Amino acid sequence: MKAQPTKTNTRKVLIIEDEGDLCLLLNLLLDGQDMEIDHVPSLAKAGEYLLQEQPALVLLDNRLPDGFGIDYIGDIKKQHPATKVIMISGLDAAARDVALDNGADDFIEKPFTKADIFRSVKKLMN
After folding, report:
1. Collapsing DSSP states into helix, strand and coil, what is residue 113?
2. Yes or no: is domain 11-125 CATH 3.40.50.2300?
3. Comparing C-alpha atoms, which of 77, 67, 61 is closest to residue 21?
4. Please, which residues have CB within 8 angstroms of residue 44's CB and are 6 or more apart in sequence?
5. What is the pLDDT of residue 4?
6. What are the residue ranges spanned by the domains of the chain?
7. Most CB atoms closer than 10 Å: which of 29, 71, 108, 116?
8. What pairs with residue 61 in β-bridges?
9. Which DSSP helix (H) or strand (E) runs through 88?
10. Which residue positions in the chain have pLDDT lower than 50?
11. Omega before 111 cis (within 30°)?
């Protein structure tokens, strides 16, 4: 029987993504990494979540139904300064600079590879 991770070594990860397929892919990639993964489809739901929880990591899409993730990075950092934010976007290179200037800890451009996700998460979570 496999031992369940304890609260001390399980890190909470929030995925803010409105595309179900991409969210499922991210869940599958991060499964088995001693992470408790939650998902919300909008900035409004993210706000509700962040009032109750403090994730170690947020994977943040840029284009969401109720706004741009790039504009929400500062809100996450203001509420939870220790939370790491990875911005995921298919926009041009200028979005990378703005995301990092707004407080993102890393930026992953779509389309991304499994290695891109692992490299970024490992860099920020270790």
Report:
1. coil
2. yes
3. 61
4. 66
5. 43
6. 11-125
7. 108
8. 88
9. strand 84-89
10. 1-8
11. yes
SS3 labels along 5-58: CCCCCCEEEEEECCCHHHHHHHHHHHCCCCEEEEEECCHHHHHHHHHHCCCCEE
Dig out the tokens for 44 from the structure: 């409004």
User: Nearest 5°: phi and psi at 65?
Assistant: -60, -25
Question: For position 6, what pLDDT does the model report?
Answer: 40
Which structure tokens are listed for 41? 């489809």
Distance CA 95, CA 118 (A): 21
**Helix, strand, coil in percent for the chain, rounding step 5:** 40, 25, 35
For the chain, what is the largest distance between any 2 Cα atoms, rounded to a whole number of angstroms?
A: 49
